Amino acid sequence: VCPECGILSVARPDTWLHLFSVFVQLPSHCSPDPDIFRYQELDKILSWAEKYPCAHSLWFGGFLGFLNIYHPEYAKSRLSATIQKGLNCVFPFLGKGLVVLHGPKWFQHRRLLTPAFHNDILKSYVSLMADSSKVMLDKWEKRITKDKSLDIFEDVCLMTLDSLLKCTFSYHSNCQNRSTTLPTAIHDLTAMIQQRIKTFLYHNDLIYWFSPHGRRFRNTFVCTIETLTMLKLVGLLRGMAFWADISAETDTLMFGGHDTTGTGISWLLYCLALHPEHQQRCREEIKEILGDRETIQWNDLSNMPYITMCIKESLRLYPPVPQMYRQLNQPVTFFDGRTLPEGLLVSLHVYALHRNPTVWKDPEVFDPLRFSQDNLSDQHSFAFLPFSAGPRNCIAQQFAMTEMKVSLALTLLRFELSPDLNNPPNEVVQLLLRSTTGIHLHLKKLS
Fold first, then answer.
1. Distance from CA of residue 344 to its chain's centroid?
2. 394 labelled as ligand-binding?
3. What predicted TM-score, i.e. pTM, was given to this entire model?
4. 97 Cβ contact partners less than 8 Å away, ≥ 6 residues apart
5. Coil, strand, or helix at residue 164?
6. Which of 23, 222, 335, 384 is the most exposed place for a label (fewest CB within 10 A)?
7. Does residue 92 register a pLDDT over 80?
């Protein structure tokens, strides 16, 4: 363990994980300030990605070691493996649902859930998504002032929660206009899960549940029970044989269906606020599509090429799930011949992959044209992974893209967005890509 910061150790050839020091040269020191790694983790990872363009090993506390990968070919090898174990430390929150299942059980759940996200089903969701977006925009219209910005993050997540309940559970919750603790509770839970992943001793259930952090997690989880219980028996999941399966997949849908999408929409609005030229071009595209209509329709979504490019570029810079952990259930061999054994913990760092300078030209620049048809042929199929890839890709990615298009279109028709330069976001990984300072935007009502 680094004697100065006590958080991150360097390569240690005397340990059983000697393969790490052979696999890739590691950083030779840690920062003397523990807060540097704790609160500027993403900057650290990007600096290492620039120095070690494929992968590096990482230690927490000298006990928990894993390989951090952020190269398309490495990602391809890792994601092409169909048998991978999830982390036990997320089971208490998501149960044994799609995110953490593996093997035949995962395949059964995936097969049963896939028809629920077919295009024929999604068509009927567009009007429901639009209704939820309009409720949010009506709230903003009443709250905006000339000199004060709004923190949009919680409102956006409430909107996606409202939309999810309407679309997948046929439940009109009115959660945007009444008090609910669910979004806050889920935000707290994701932060605590990230803390548990990075604390080696907390991977032991007995130690964790008797620790102050474990007790806090349990108490916070209680806040979600009332809403989740209402959703346990849904027609979408009647193919599940056991109550535990229904419960787990409901919890997974509740988390993956609103919090990740809400995060993605919030960062998307922030990106367009920073770049008014792209914002205006998106607005003109929407107006041209709608003409005299005020309602978004399913067929409109396929006629939004520039909006689609802006969404993808936002997801590149700010992927809602910036890091994905898996424990290998079989050996993996990478394109350069290096091999990882069964049982090793591997992290696919999507945030670093999307900003890897060996993969993307000027990676910090917001450039939607990266995703134009002319440039897609030059893009590695595993260079852009906001929804993962391979057999375990996000089952609801089309649902998320639909909701992002609908909410963005309606927002830009009503408001002009600009950033609050006095309250910039502070990016941090809390299972999802959060901002510890919120996402503050100035909103100007358009005539």
1. 23
2. yes
3. 0.82
4. 109, 248, 249, 251, 252
5. helix
6. 222
7. no
